[in-house]
Design brief:
It contains 15 helices and 19 strands. It is of the alpha/beta class.
Length: 457
């Protein structure tokens, strides 16, 4: 496709669409959602899958020493490192609450430390965390352990300790290397720190390094982003996540520290995306979809090629577990037929733990329809094709196929006798295609005109 034709498609499909790390998406979940309801589903999935597949663990470590104003994550800003001990005590109690209700020793297949800034914690405390997580549990022989690190504070001691504990993947938030952009988003991060953290990780033995980049940041411009991508390509990270900045100052107060006039225009943001995408693919990175790029030697690329790619709240993964347990403030858990989210406020989280209760406040139990359309969305995101089943065919005909038909003319999909395949062009619009199977959203939009008319009358 000619570049100007692709740019037109990017402009046409530039609309807010969920990342589909869950289906139904979080806005459709409800509260209160009881720990008892969640644990029933959790135990069922654990009993069915623990021995054969193992489970996934996500640990949210929310602390950061300074506020990155662009960030929409759940975080707590402090320079007081005594919070590490209090938080680790709570995490251990939460994990013990799970172990007490599970019938066997958990087999950990996948473990990710996210944040916040996990490398806010000292190497000794990260070792302590892993020790109590593994007490009464075992690591699967093919376990994958990963962590998010800040280039400014990830030390050689951190990396050596993590490697000794079994970590082989690390992700660094690079975002942008332009000094003007770094100042306005309050993330001063010299290139030499990124080089040092990357080189040290590889020297110690980490086999997969990921960089997060963001386009659409305040004060960001084309030449600056191109320079950032050039420097990143020179370091040759195994994976790159190239995210669109989401400006949501009504939920992320840090974003109120700059004005909307500081942001690139819609056309400028599109140019940033196209330039970054073209540079990455020209450098040999494959566009996996959903803003993710990988080099051909990386397991993520291989999983995408052989159809074994999976997606959960940790993003794209090569692991196929049916149970994901999230520990820590705001963490989300997934048992296949149910989701649960922990309290978002640290005080509420601590209060539940002290009472000996799982700190769950929100969740969702999936219907049979939800389960099937979740599968369709995962097939779009991970396999590039969908095979329709007979169940809920009326829903497919009424809501999904009309939405898909609109993508056909733009060569994003091709009809098959009983499903669709995503074209090479369509791989750039995975989220838009997945949205065609989001029945909750499609029904809501179909009802909206009638509701507006009713309110007007």
């Amino acid at each position: 496709m000619k570049s100007h034709g692709f740019a037109a498609l990017v402009a046409r499909y530039n609309q807010p669409v969920p990342r589909y790390t869950s289906y139904p998406t979080v806005p459709y979940w409800y509260e209160p959602f009881t720990a008892a309801a969640w644990m029933q589903r959790c135990r069922e999935t654990f009993a069915a899958s623990n021995h054969r597949e193992g489970i996934s663990l996500y640990i949210h470590l929310p602390f950061c020493e300074s506020l990155c104003t662009y960030c929409g994550c759940n975080k707590k800003i402090t320079t007081n490192h005594s919070v590490e001990d209090v938080y680790l005590q709570a995490l251990e109690k939460e994990w013990r609450l799970y172990q007490q209700q599970l019938d066997d020793a958990p087999v950990i297949r996948e473990l990710h430390l996210g944040g916040g800034t996990p490398t806010f914690f000292s190497p000794e405390n990260l070792q302590r965390l892993m020790q109590f997580l593994l007490q009464g549990a075992t690591l699967h022989t093919d376990a994958e352990l990963s962590i998010e690190g800040h280039p400014n504070n990830t030390t050689a001691e951190h990396l050596a300790m993590l490697y000794a504990l079994g970590f082989r993947r690390i992700s660094y938030g690079v975002q942008d290397l332009d000094e003007t952009v770094q100042r306005i988003i309050n993330r001063i991060q010299p290139l030499e720190n990124v080089v040092r953290a990357t080189t040290e990780a590889r020297r110690i033995g980490f086999t997969s390094v990921n960089f997060d980049l963001v386009y659409g940041l305040p004060k960001q411009h084309l030449a600056g982003l191109q320079h950032t991508v050039e420097e990143v390509i020179a370091l040759r990270p195994d994976r790159i996540a190239f995210y669109s900045y989401a400006h949501v100052p009504w939920t992320s107060r840090g974003q109120r520290l700059y004005d909307e006039q500081d942001l690139p225009s819609a056309d400028e943001k599109m140019a940033l995306y196209l330039a970054g995408r073209d540079m990455l693919t020209a450098a040999g990175y494959a566009d996996i979809g959903m803003d993710h790029y990988a080099l051909p030697h990386d397991p993520l690329y291989k999983a995408w090629q052989d159809g074994s790619l999976h997606r959960n709240f940790m993003g794209y993964t090569t692991q196929q577990t049916r149970l994901l347990i999230g520990l820590g403030v705001s963490s989300i858990s997934d048992a296949g037929h149910a989701f649960a989210q922990n309290h978002k406020q640290l005080g509420d989280y601590y209060a539940s733990i002290e009472k000996g209760e799982l700190p769950i406040f929100k969740g969702y139990e999936l219907s049979e329809e939800d389960v099937l359309f979740r599968k369709y969305i995962l097939d779009v995101c991970c396999r590039g094709k969908v095979e329709f089943e007979e169940a809920f065919d009326d829903v497919l005909e009424q809501h999904c196929k009309p939405a898909l038909q609109a993508l056909l003319a733009d060569d994003l999909i091709e009809w098959q006798p009983n499903g669709i395949t995503i074209t090479a062009t369509g791989r750039n619009f995975i989220r838009n295609i997945a949205r065609c199977f989001d029945v909750h959203l499609l029904r809501q939009q179909a009802d909206a005109p009638a509701k507006r008319f009713s309110q007007a009358v």
